[in-house]
């Protein structure tokens, strides 16, 4: 599968990771971060946007950018053990295989949103307080580079008194749909959406989980009188582990 088709598939399914299988055996895992890394490194090697051949870059096959060998576990597996593994390894999907290596299923960060719908712990306890804000005038290629450098998949933007959320997925989809130099130089803000904001003093993990499940950005902002923090699906994994395990 070419990378451009992968990006569109992930966007349609509103997911950020995919399992790569050959003849029933899992051979790799690929994510939006892998795609972003591929484009950012190609840009750095080229030295300029004008020197990039986006059609060639996006035409590379998934196998050329996937993580291999993938980190897998064999069942049975409970959510507590899976959460500890995912957090310690820094991964967003945990494939499960049988004794022969055949793919059986996977636990993802979104599963923990589903598992957290009854948690009444305060959401702000698990949010990231030091929020890096992007520049609304920043072009797509620079925003992607910033996200890749810091290791996150969402970039909050502030425009006046309003907040927006750009995601790695939305920026990659823009590039895949229109693989031209001009796209890389478009403002990332154009492909952002108004951020979903909850009250930091009253929002529970259950509130946050329900909201995250309902929006494609999979992240919310928490606002108090003098502070903005961000909570993502990965934070829900940590909340589940700490509250349940």
TrEMBL record:
SMART domains: CBS. SUPFAM superfamilies: CBS-domain pair (SSF54631). Pfam families: CBS. Keywords: CBS domain, Repeat. Gene3D superfamilies: CBS-domain. Residues 66-124 form the CBS domain. InterPro entries: CBS_dom (IPR000644), CBS_dom_sf (IPR046342), CBS_domain-containing (IPR051462). PANTHER family: CBS DOMAIN-CONTAINING PROTEIN CBSX2, CHLOROPLASTIC (PTHR48108), CBS DOMAIN-CONTAINING PROTEIN DDB_G0289609 (PTHR48108:SF26). This is Conserved archaeal protein. The lineage of its organism: Archaea, Thermoproteota, Thermoprotei, Desulfurococcales, Pyrodictiaceae.
């Amino acid at each position: 599968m070419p990378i451009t088709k992968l990006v569109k598939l992930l966007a349609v399914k509103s997911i950020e990771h995919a399992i790569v299988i050959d003849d029933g055996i899992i051979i790799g895992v690929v994510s939006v971060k892998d795609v972003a890394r591929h484009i950012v490194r190609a840009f750095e090697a080229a030295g300029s946007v004008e020197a990039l051949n986006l059609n060639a870059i996006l035409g590379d096959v998934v196998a050329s950018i996937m993580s291999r060998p993938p980190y897998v576990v064999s069942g049975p597996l409970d959510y507590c053990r899976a959460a500890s593994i995912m957090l310690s390894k820094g991964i967003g999907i945990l494939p499960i295989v049988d004794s022969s290596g055949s793919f059986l299923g996977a636990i993802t960060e979104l599963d923990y949103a589903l598992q957290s719908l009854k948690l009444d712990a305060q959401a702000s306890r698990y949010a990231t307080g030091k929020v890096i804000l992007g520049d609304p005038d920043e072009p797509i290629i620079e925003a992607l580079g910033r996200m890749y450098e810091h290791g996150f998949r969402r970039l909050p933007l502030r425009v006046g008194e309003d907040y927006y959320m750009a995601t790695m997925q939305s920026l990659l989809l823009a590039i895949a749909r229109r693989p031209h130099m001009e796209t890389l130089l478009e403002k990332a803000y154009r492909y952002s959406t108004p951020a979903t904001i909850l009250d930091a003093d009253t929002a529970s993990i259950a509130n946050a989980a329900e909201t995250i499940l309902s929006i494609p950005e999979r992240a919310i902002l928490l606002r108090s009188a003098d502070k903005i923090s961000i909570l993502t699906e990965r934070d829900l994994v940590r909340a589940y582990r700490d509250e349940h395990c």
